[in-house]
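Risk register update: the risk that structure generation would not scale has been downgraded. Supporting records follow, first protein first.
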Amino acid sequence: MNDLVHHEKLAGPAGERVLVRRSARRRRTVSITRREGDLVIAIPAAFSARQEREWAKKMVDQLVAKESRRRPARRSDAQLMAMAREVSEAHLGGRAHPTSVTWSTRQNARWGSCTPADGTIRLSHQLQGMPDYVVRSVMMHELVHLLVPGHGPEFKALMAAYPQAEKAQGFLDGVSWAKDMPPLGGDDVEEAPGEG
């Protein structure tokens, strides 16, 4: 990485070093990528020092904005427990009483799960950043399971008390479908000077 110049006055969102690589092959585009814990910005070799500083800052700002859209603030487990109480009160007359509600990084095949015997609910970390009504719908689903096993008529009747259940299910079906599709673009942010 000896062709990289470290910008000491600029840092990534988590304090990463910002390194700039000048490329004789680049004519117009500027890109930013993550490499080995650093942010690497590739610019045309013909850029002036001023253009280099301006584009380095612009690309770091764009990456921060892109990543903040991708990873909204995570709710804490305490916030999940408060949400469970709210959903239970509003839609189940306060009958469901979970003992704990936590995020789980071990759930990749389902959105949530519960253990009625001990009253625990786990929500997939993949729900983080999804619309609130979607998270609340999955919460409602698990709360109903604390009261009713299976997905029979009694379960469906209780779930019907959540007005956005069908809309949330449509959203989750779309996410599930999209996960099986190849991504439209990579993680790189690339822009030609003069655009954006």
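Supporting record for the second protein:
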Amino acid sequence: MSVSRRPMEATNTVPAVFSKRPASLFPAGLKVARGSLRERLAMLLFLVLDSLCWAGIYMGLSELSGDFNRYGWSEVILPTAICVFCLSLIGAYNSRSDMRSLNYASEHLIACLAAFLFSALMVYLVASFGGAVASSRSIFGVTFLAFSLLTLAQRKLLYNSSLLHRNRRLLVISDTESGERFYRNYTLNSQKQNLHFFAVGDATVGSNVAGPDSPTYSALASDILKNLKENPDTEHEAIVIAAPSDRLDNNILNSLVAVHFQELPVYTMHSFFESYWQKMPPDLLSRTWPLDSGFQLVQHSAFASLKRVFDIVLASCTLVLVSPALAFVALLIKCEGKGPVIFSQTRVGQHGDLFTLYKFRTMIVGSEFKGLYTTEGDPRVTKLGHWLRVTRLDELPQLWNVLRGEMSLIGPRAEWIKCVEQYETVIPYYHFRHLVRPGITGWAQVNYSYGASVNDTLEKLMYDLYYIRHFSLALDATVILKTLHVMIFGKGR
């Protein structure tokens, strides 16, 4: 039986959002901040200056000490590469980082200290295999100290100069509810841009976005292209569509598509949270979100096995190094009053399996049943316990849980089963935290303060979901550096 084949007929039906030529909508002369040549050159300048700084200081001190021409590649190139890697983990080559803040300064110095320790280990490992270390340990240490201070100073100077210090403009399209939510999250993050809100839906021009101290809606969303044209000399970083897409008509969407195709990035609220603030709001995720890219730690056994090897090695080494401190803390707890040194509690682990978690006791015996959360100045916490919580030293016995395979060094916080039962009924996607092993520290713990409510738990879940989807060894290394910052500056409770 023959089948007649007719050529497919062309159709004039075009999706409304693409019904116009994008290029014709783009405002001429628009300055784009992201990826601008000036910022790229500034980041390249930091990279070059860091490399020259280490090499120059080290070789100069070696020459002054009389070690002429004796330094090898392992003492110049290897530490330089390690320094650049550690600094990149804390955003030292990211133009969005606020390099003037005290928070950045502390993370910068901690990253340099970590680079010093790792570099010293690698250099002397090279020497043990037949290489030669010409300069003394003192020269190596002085070089790192000078490097840490000089690279931090140069960032502060350049950041305050016209090269980097600029008023980054972020255009936000929102209705009342989404605008309030966006601004609330904006205030929690260190990245600060000059916000301009455009009203859509029930939002009105001139009204405050989120209270009397917040910005006002400067114009309607339909005027966003007009605003871009009227400010041709202003550098625009991005446009954020915070409002639901059904609040935008086709003309606005056409305009945004055109702008996006011409290098000025346009983000949905979800993609902005993920790209800029590195967290994922569960209520903005689609039902097919788990099918998206990522989740390497869950889908690929090689990543899970590699992470497990790192857990065993690092936990074993850490236990050996801190064993005197563990004994000393145990003695202090015994001296403070009656009760056990170790507190144990049933927690929920990977795949929902239950396990017994161990911590140093920081509360009066039996008081943990009098409330789910620990509050500021909680009378149940002992004086020594308060210090242990602030420095996170109460978590050290969990290294035993890591060696047993019940926990990882890095992952979502292991929660009490009573808390989990409550959270899973009110927080969407909460059970996704159990796809991986819980951790002693994690992305949520270093980015958000101690949780004392369901709302706090929701905020921390955003960071946990980001970690589970975007896991990498580099992200784990970043968490370790930020954990040191938290321990030194006392961010626990």
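Residues 169-277 form a domain with the Rossmann fold fold (CATH 3.40.50). On this basis the risk owner (M.S.) recommends closing the item.
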